[in-house]
User: Fold these one by one.
Assistant:
Number 1:
Amino acid sequence: MPLSRSKKEQVVENVEQLLKTSKLTVIARYQGMSVKDMQTLRSQAKTGNTTIKVVKNRLVMQSIKHLEQYKNLDLSQLQGMLIYAFNPEDEVAPAQSIATFAKQKPIVEFVGAITTEGKWLDAEQVKTLADLPNKPVLIGSVIALLQSPIRSIVAATNGNLTNIISGLKAKAA
C-alpha cells in the first residue's frame, strides 16, 4: 500500500533527523534478503546503537536536499534496493554492523557512506572503516599505550627497591 503524502513527509523528517545526528550514514544494497535476515541485521545493529532503515531512495534524496551540508552531494549512487545505517555515537559502528552481517550473508554489499561533513565515501573506503576497531576499543588501546611507560618505571623502581632492601638485610645479618 502506498504511503500517503503526510506519511511521506513524516518519513522525510525522520530521515532528516537521523542524518543530522548520525556520525556516519552507511548505505548498502540488500537485494534478495529475506525479512528474517533483515530482522536479524536490525537486532545485531541495535546492540551497537545503529539504526537500520529501509526507505525509498527518493525520500532519502529529499531529506538530503533539505540539509545544508549535503547540498553538493552526488546522489547518483542511490539506486536500487538500499538500506541505510545510522549511528549517532560511533563513526565505525554502522559499517561494522553491516560488514559483520555480510560475512554471514554475502547478499549485502556496501554502496558507500555519507559523513557528517557531507562527503561521500565509496564502498572500498567503507570496507576499510569496517575493519577498524570501534571507539571503546581504540580508547582502551590508547590508554594502555599511555600507561605502558608508567608501568615500566614502577616495575623497575619496585625491583630496584627490593634489591636494595634485600642487600641491606644481608649486610645487617
Note: The chain has six helices and five strands.
Number 2:
Amino acid sequence: MAGTLIRSYDSYGQAAFVVRELEAAGIPAEQISIVGRHDAIGTAAEAGGMIGSGAGLLGALIALPIPGAGPVLAAGWLIAGTALGAAGGAAAGSLIGVLTGAGLTESDANTVAEMVRRGGAFVAVRSSGGLAAIAEAIMRSGRPIDPEHRRAAYEREGWRRFDEKSGRKPADLSGVVS
C-alpha cells in the first residue's frame, strides 16, 4: 500500500540530513520532497538562481516565496506541478493546500506551515511496502517534531492557525528560475 509520510524538523539542517539518509538508503529522490527556511535563501535570491549543490534531491533546491512564510527552499514531487511551484517566482499556491493534498489534516497542515514560518522544515516521502518502513525509521531517527505538542505550545502563545496574510512577507524572488 502506497502512502505519504510527512515529518517536520526544527531546522532545515535536520531535514536535509534526513533527505541525505533517505537517499543513501535507496529511497528514490523523485519520491522525496523538502520544504523549509534556510539562511542561504537570501544569497540565492540575490544570485537569482537555484540553491542546491551536488547530486540528488538537495542539488535541485529552488527558492520560492510562500505567502505568510516568506522565502523557502523547496525540492521534490510535492512542489512540482503545483501552484506552490509557480513559474517566475510568483507564489500563487497555498502551503496549507499542498499539505492537506498530501494527506495531512487541516490542523496538522496549519501547524507544519507555522513551523516553516518560524524557521523549520519538513520532509515528505511517497513510498510503499518495505521502503515505507525504512523511510519511517529514517525520518524518526532525525528527531521530528510532534505536531500535537508543538501546536499546544503555539496555542499557549495565542496562536490559532497559520495565516498566509501575516508574518514574514515573501521576498522578491522574480529572478529565481525554477
Note: The first strand starts at residue 2 and ends at 9.
Number 3:
Amino acid sequence: MLKKSKQIFFTIMAVLIGGFIAIQFIPYGRNHTNPPVTGEPEWSSPEVRELAERACYDCHSNETIWPWYSHVYPISAMVQHDVEKGREVLNYSEWDNTEREQATTERMIETISKNVMPLPYYLLIHPVAELSEVEQGRLINGLIESIGDDDGSLEAVDIEGDEEEDSGN
C-alpha cells in the first residue's frame, strides 16, 4: 500500500514537472523589447521624474526592467500583458507621438490617488515602487506642473504644509 502511494506521488510529480518544463516553450511572454525612447514629458523637477520612474516606468515606458521571473511561463505572459497594456494606455517614452492618445492628467491623478497603480501584486515584489502619501502628492503636483491639463482646471496644492502637520510641527 505504501509502495503504491509513493509510486502515485512520484508519477504525479513527474507529470507536473514535465508539464512545467513543456509550457516553457510557449512563445508568448518572451518578447521583452524596449523600443527606443522618442520623447518624454518636460518634467518640472528631477524628483518628479524619479518618482514616476520608480512607480510607473516598468509598465508605462520603453525603459522596462525585465527581471528573471519575466522569462518563466506563466508569469512571463502576465508580465508581458501588463507591460503591453500599460504602454498602450500611457507611455512616458513616446510622449512626443501626436498620433497616440495618452491618458489624461486627470486620469493619472485619479489612478495614483486611489492607489490603483502600481498594481498591488507588483508592489509585493517591487516594494520600492510604493509611494508614501507625501510622495504621491509630489508626483501628482509634478504631473500637473509638467503635463498640465486640457482646460486648466487642475492646480498643484501645497503638500509641504500637510507634511509639517503630519509630523506634529
Note: Residues 163-167 have pLDDT under 50 and may be disordered.
